[in-house]
Amino acid sequence: MKQRSSLNRRHFLRIVGTASLALRTSMARGLPSSPHLAYVGSGHDEIHVFQVDGLNWALKQIVACKVPASLTVHPNRRTLYAINQVADHQHLPTGSVETFTLAPDGTLTAFSKTSLSLSATLPRHLTLSPDGKSAVVAIHGGGAYNLLSLLEGGQCPQVAGILKETGCGPDALHQLSAHPSMALFDTTHGRVLTSDTGSDQISVLAVSETSLTVHQRFATDAGSGPAHLVLHPKGDILFVANQLNRSLCSYKYDPEHGRILHCIQRIAEDTGGPLALHPSGRALYTIGGREDDVLQVWHIDRSPGILNRFQSWHLHSGRSVAMTAERDTLHVVSETFDGVLRFTADPADGRLSGPILAAEVPEPLSIATLSM
After folding, report:
1. What does the pLDDT look like over 64-117, one tens digit per residue?
2. What sign does the dihedral 314-243-308-357 (CA atoms) show?
3. To the nearest 5 percent, what fractions of the chain are helix, strand and coil?
4. Which domains does the chain have, with CATH numbers?
């Protein structure tokens, strides 16, 4: 049965006061409460570091970082990357990638800041190869992708390859040129799936040590503006949230040959915001609504790859800009609530309960979590 809930900021703040009771309830249900770390990027040019123990979020540190639009932890767990979504760096028209070392307790120390290629302005997202040897940056303003080579330990990234994109769409306000929004590695680790909001296409790029090359272009609906991507753990279904026409699509993907085969389902549910996938592969989380204030939970029928909505949470203008899913938790970064909303997820099917306002962060932009 489809469930709907409505929430507002006053309600969240009241729930925070009962967090200890909620924690006891969660523990009674047998949910794990092992300590974690959470890194939340802020539009105040900061990263907030939290020690997370169950429902208790304790602020450990605040470090300076220019517009941290995307945060990613290296597989070696010793380095964190922050994409600086800026239009200039060192008096040149380019964005940058900031690197931090992680101490054993999870605190950060600024290590380096690397310029992206010239005209690589307003970078939006970084994805790491599973082996930690390379990264790909989607550059929204500059219409390109940068391949980063990661040296020993990953602390000194260098631009090793550039792929410049072209194209446009029918939306005269948002599609005058290419605007890459996101990239992610497929399960073979040798290819990257990308979304381009400006040219209405999703692509498969082949990755080598020194270059990015186009393996496949796949056109989406004119004016759709594909932006957010997530790949099923099995590697054979790609979910895409389209920012401009606010639709949600699933595509059949062939990881062996690196081919997007066809669209499985197209849903016009006003769901063009961030996506997250429950680790079980049974549930997809989407953000939509006029103000990106509706969280929806979709059951994934694995055989045909069909989505069926079974939960909705109405956050009442709680604009949400990022999500991260774990086995027992979904974190939603809310710009309007100035913080991180924590939902408890059923480990088996991803069904949600809660939430609480776990932490307050001014103008939150991004989140990354790490188990200790």
Report:
1. 999 999 999 999 999 999 999 999 999 999 999 999 999 999 999 999 999 999
2. negative
3. 5, 55, 40
4. 3-29+36-371 (2.130.10.10)
Q: How far is it, in rounded angstroms, from Cα 104 to Cα 165?
A: 40
CA distance 35 to 39: 14
The burial class, CB within 10 Å (0-12 / 13-18 / 19+), for 124 is buried
Dig out the tokens for 105 from the structure. 């307790």
Separation CA 241–CA 307 (nearest Å): 13
* Segment 294-315, tens digit of pLDDT: 999 999 997 788 999 999 988 8
C-alpha 232 chain-centroid distance: 14
105 class by beta-carbon count within 10 Å (0-12 exposed, 13-18 middle, 19+ buried): exposed
- Burial of 299-324, coded b for 16+ CB within 10 Å and e otherwise, reads bbeeeebebebbbbbbbebbbbbbbb
pLDDT surpassing 60 at residue 368: yes
**Contact predicate 193/231, CB 8 Å:** yes
Which residues sit opposite 228 in a β-bridge? 241
Share of the chain above pLDDT 70, in %: 90
- How many CA atoms, within 13 angstroms, populate the side-chain half-sphere of residue 304? 6
Question: pTM to 2 decimals?
Answer: 0.91
Short-list 311, 289, 291, 307, CA closest to 299: 307
Pairing verdict, β 3-6 and 306-314: parallel
pLDDT digits (tens, 9 = 90+) for 22-61: 332 333 334 444 569 999 999 999 999 999 988 899 999 9
pLDDT at 201 over 50: yes
What sign does the CA torsion over 149, 241, 42, 47 have? negative
Tokens for 38?
A: 């959470």
Q: Residue 34 has what pLDDT?
A: 53
Q: What are phi and psi of 15, to 5 degrees?
A: -65, -35
**Token pair 């599609």 is at which residue?**
175
Q: b/e per residue, 187-226, with b = 16+ CB within 10 A?
A: beeebbbbbbbbbbbbbbbebeeeebeebbebebbeebbb
> E strands within 74-170?
79-84, 96-102, 108-115, 123-128, 134-139, 144-149, 158-164
